[in-house]
Hints:
It contains seven helices and eight strands. The chain is α/β, with parallel strands linked by helices. Helix 2 (78-95) packs across helix 7 (209-228) and helix 4 crosses helix 7 (209-228). The N and C termini lie far apart (92 Å). The model is unreliable at 2-14, 26-45 and 246-260 (pLDDT under 50).
Amino acid sequence: MSCSRKFCGSACALGYETRMTLFARILLVVGGCILLSSCGTGPALRVKDTTRTFTTVVVDAGHGGKDNGALRRYGGAEKNATLDVAKRLEQKLRESQLKTVMTRSSDVFIALDERVSIENSQKNAIFVSIHFNDSRRRRIHGYETYYHSPNARALANRIQQKLMTIPHSANRGVHSANFHVLRMARYPAVLVECGFLSNRKEGGSARDSEYRELLADRIAEAIVEQRFGPGVYHAAARAASQPPTEKPSPGLVPSTLRHD
């Protein structure tokens, strides 16, 4: 074999190996993109649309225990405000003949995965997480509601609309977010930011029992209307400072709509 033929054979072999290496790299890149794409969209595709059929509401009081959440001079610890609003909300929902499950009912730490597990273990449910906001800019104020699955968008919009009926409220909008408790939920899930603890006015209001009662009332109204339709919800006549009771009061939803 001549030198030229040897050189040609070696070059051809080298070119073949280069092409195979390049082909393998392309396969890896394409496969990785497909895998990442499936991971990003998988949870959202598995969400069941129960926004018109749910019988259970999982009420999530954000933070707790060792996790204070936001901690501000005006509003105090976020974990305390979220728990109080969540308890009031839970009672109002029970009064409207909806089954309720709370991720926490006292000042304890609950991991995010456990919160999601509590929700996903229910049947025909939705998930509502209560939070208060925080910012380095003290002038920022207003309400925000977040969702991840498109199935939860209508519920998020309705909650935001009801919050806007609170006097002097500021609308910071409804947004999609990749929060863990929203992304991993199998049912429609929303997260409500009930004002900024870092703002003097909203932080001070968050310490007020009447204000927390009003927040719970508006969120409850949105949830009940999402399930049963407008005009069904009626708030109980109760002092704002009265702590939530352990036993449900008589249902406020018409008997034709009750789900005992």
